[in-house]
Amino acid sequence: MSIIIVSWNVRDMLRKNLAQLFSLQRSEFPVEVFVVDNGSIDGSVRMVRDDFPWVHVIQNDYNAGFAKACNQAIRMAKGEVILLLNPDNCVEPGTLDRTYSELMTHADIGVFGVKLLSEDGEVVRSVRRNPGVFDQLAILLKLPHLFPSITDRYLAKDFDYTASQDVEQIRGSYFAFRRSLVEQIGMLDERFFIWFEEVDFCRRVRGNGLRIRYCADVTCRDCVGRSFAQVSRWKKQRMFFTSAWTYFWKWGFHNA
Predict the structure, then answer these.
(1) How many other CB atoms are there within 10 angstroms of residue 229's CB atom?
(2) For position 231, what pLDDT does the model report?
(3) Phi then psi for 113, rounded to 5 degrees?
(4) Exposure b/e, 154-185, CB count within 10 A at least 16 = b
(5) pLDDT at residue 36, as a whole number
(6) Which pLDDT belongs to residue 24?
């Protein structure tokens, strides 16, 4: 398995993530870990090199975005299974083994995700339905503050997180697939700096007749958005709009 972590100025969370990864016991397969650093100024690269010298470090001198940074490591990865893992996550025991087993046993699974839990143990709502122009505009214009149910379909508010099942898309913070899938559908689309790259990838996966699988039986702790907490609200809005526009321009502005 090749684990790819894209990091930007979250040194302490990254250290916790890596320490947890290397404390896990695995019996079936070796693991290699890549950290792609997007121009951090908090000493993240030095920490990884000093504390985890066996980790492969790719150091960018600027913020290349999520998709491009992932692709840098995917090109170098040797594992049969690739896991994209956010730096503010902590994988729990049994999760890597289950991920590897499911992907290597079931050839019709394209992307595999697990139950994400917050630091307090609450379920992180990681499953979405296909985005439509209307619900994305509603999010951009903050309409759910006035009409809370307006995005219920897209946010899959009725989804049962206690049951493993096929879904339309999963959150990119724990996002696993076979390396051979890249040869079939291509890499992450680098036109997406952040947001919608996993939505686009899942759509291509399903377009090739493969399943997106959510597994409720194993978990990963997700501290959600530690890097993005450092970005201004205006910049987040602009990034979201740009990625949404790119997605709908690519797939059509009808309800995707």
Answers:
(1) 11
(2) 61
(3) -130, 165
(4) bbbeebebeebeebbbbbbbbbbbbbebbeee
(5) 98
(6) 86
**Predicted pLDDT at 26:** 65
Pairing of strands 165-167, 211-222: antiparallel
Rg (CA), the chain: 18
> Facing residues of 116 across strands?
220
* DSSP per residue, 62-79: S---HHHHHHHHHTT---
Could you list the beta-strand ranges (E) of 87-196.
89-91, 109-117, 127-128, 165-167, 169-170, 174-178
Q: What is the pTM of this model?
A: 0.94
Dig out the tokens for 40 from the structure: 């951090």
Q: Please list the rounded mean pLDDT of every run of 10 residues in the chain (256 residues).
A: 96 95 81 96 97 97 96 97 96 96 97 95 95 91 90 95 97 96 96 94 97 98 69 78 92 71
For residue 39, which amino acid is it?
A: G
According to the model, what pLDDT value does residue 229 have? 60
Give all domains of the chain, ordered by start, each with its CATH number.
Answer: 2-251 (3.90.550.10)
How far apart, in Å, do the first and last CA atoms of the chain sit? 33
- Separation of alpha carbons 190 and 69, rounded Å: 9
- In angstroms, the CA 214 to CA 218 distance is 10
Cα dihedral 62→66→68→71 (10° resolution): 130
**Vertex 86: Cα angle to 193 and 18 (nearest 5):** 140
The reported pLDDT for the residue numbered 172 is: 92
Crossing angle (nearest 10°) for helices 233-251 and 133-140: 170
